[in-house]
């Protein structure tokens, strides 16, 4: 399997990330700092930008331009160094002289045929000046030149935002999913004694257990709990979101995800459901990413109660910020009611949130 080697990172206020796979063939980038010769490397303020690969030494500078992003739930502090070390992740910095003013990270995936945006950042005083646009052009050009197997890129962003509208003009819109975010402190009744969550469990369902058989039959069963448009990408295969990262739903990807996240299944009366759990620390508390693809609300609840129970036992004194993608829109209202009224958690957002998924042929 042919892939690209480059150590770098990227992040923007509305885009999101992806997970590791190792390359068999690696191309090392020997040019560490370089700029294009044309005038398109000039920001709207008239200042010329240069681009280089990020390193571990750039951590503090990158964090300084990221302050306040995502309301202290930012993932980049936890993942930055892993991005730098991951041979499938490329992280470019935009520089104005010696100052870091932007970052964009991408990851090669789908057996080397696609890449996704993992992170994108622009310094507050440089926003609205075309920095991220120039970083994107630079990144795409680099991928075309160095990763000939890559045929398209995928991006995920919040719906109904300027970023989403821009992507709709320049990329192929595939579909969107509901995104639910709730947080709680350690003093909630069920945080004090996680065993009490058992009284909320639906009856008549088996336990949620670690996924063992990530085969084609299982993927076909889970695909039913996605919108029909989730198969609207260029390869016609279903796409799931895993902590904001768009993956083709396939045995290969599920087995790869098992190396960095925890996958669970519930099988009942001929139906299968899937939940994928990823955790990381942030200033606001433990970030618990739970993506559930299930037919019914009771099945969804069975998955989530297990993951909240486990998280409460391991993070007894931390806030828990639960970030959840929902495969079926018809479950969304019940999920909000359950998190708000039954679990007494606080919502991240005042309104319903969607995540838009896009592709672009290179």
Automatic annotation (TrEMBL):
Which PROSITE patterns did the record assign?
GNAT
Q: Where is the N-acetyltransferase domain?
A: 49-203
Superkingdom is Eukaryota
GO MF term set: acyltransferase activity, transferring groups other than amino-acyl groups
Q: Which Gene3D superfamilies match?
A: 3.40.630.30
Q: Which PANTHER family match?
A: LOC100145250 PROTEIN, N-ACETYLTRANSFERASE DOMAIN-CONTAINING PROTEIN
Q: Specify the protein name.
A: Histidine N-acetyltransferase-like
